[in-house]
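Team,

Forwarding the record for the chain on the shared tracking sheet. I've put the sequence and predicted structure together so nobody has to dig through attachments.
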Amino acid sequence: MAENSSKFWFLTYEYFKKDIIKPEDNLVILVHWLLLRNNFQVLGLDNEDKANIEQPTDILPTNWTEKEMYKLHYKRGEELFVLSGVKACDSFIFNLYNVLTKHVASAAIGNVNSTVKWISDSVNNKDKFYETIHLLETDLIKPMQKENEDKTNVGTQTKKADDVSIGQFSSHPPGYQPEPSFSPISQYPSYGMPDLNPLGGGGMLFDPLMQRRRPNNGPGIPPLARFDPTRPINPDPMMPGSFSRPRPDHMRPPDFDDSLYM
């Protein structure tokens, strides 16, 4: 592990060494230093309800070594964490708890006395000292860092999904273009263009968002059905019974040859 992994460690250890009462206090100082390096700050309180009004700092609270079981409150941004530590025979167990997400990370030190020796004399025990740092960072610190990164990624992906959804759910499908209308300026009218480009809107491709349905009261025709009329629209509504009998225009002209369409 790189030498710069122990940056400011000696200053931190020398500052809190005067408070050490028990061997495991050395372990708490080491974890406190690692938390400071990862943007955590400690709160001098015992009640979590006061976390919003308490000013975080880098200094461990007064009398932090007095109890057998350690319980320290930390903040990172607006999130509150609880660091607890307890000795179990020759081992020591740390738990870091995120009050907001209920996520817990744990790390165990196998032999307290040996680890304290490596911490107090890190110059002559560099390899073991760095192994201890790596263990604590991997098991205790990094799970909380990864949790924060995952929440950031989820928030970013959700925002992108919302932006895409807003663009998709418009009044017409993507790629819709209104049917071109004839303009006297154009040399050629746009007849048949909707059929050549059905995705542009109109033509023989039925667009469910287009309001082309209308009430139909004829026999066998469902209400609001889209269908091709069985006969042309009445050209002369003033002529009574215009569709009650055949019209001359409905008959084939003499000698009409329709073999072209067969």
